[in-house]
Amino acid sequence: MLDIMWTSFLYAVIAGILGVGISLTYMKTGRVSKNFARTLIILPVLVCVVMTMVNGNLGTSVAIVGAFGLIRFRSLQGSSRDIAFIFFAMTVGLTCSMGYLIFAAAVTVLVCVILFVLQVIHYGEKKTEEKDLRITIPENLDYPNIFEQIFEEYTKEHKLIQVKTTNMGSLYELQYHTVLKDSTREKEFLDAVRCRNGNLTVILGRTDMNEEEL
Q: What is the pLDDT of residues 1-14, one digit of tens each?
């Protein structure tokens, strides 16, 4: 019995060490939550201990480990990145609990290397020239063609995404997706738009749909 306990403790220690690697990868490849970074160290250990204590009963183990994974999402909506790291940590803990320590270490190194490479090459990131443009215009302006000359001069491409009325129907808000030719001429571009829309509100921002994914 003592030998089994020490073996289980060794598995948990290895899981914790691998958890440190997972946590460091999380901190180096995107936005960081201090508490979540610490949780990624502890989670593989807890999963490993749970799997060991239920004596290999897979159904019970998965149910308990699944409850661990839900704790974060009941208190705070997680991003896809957070979900991936939770499953990463859980997978390592499960693998260690079964005694496949070398395999767990190899998987951890492989996934961490992939994440670092994706971060270095900026895989999936939008180009900085891509912007969302929102223009407010009076209701008497013919919006389909009024900005075409400006777009041809300052953008590589543009697309009207949405039109909606504001201020009790006296104003229109136009939303465009644009790709600027030269980001250094951004102010010049906005000034040209302001001259056409009567100096009403103009908003130019990044196209990121969810900043927490960055």
A: 667 788 889 999 99
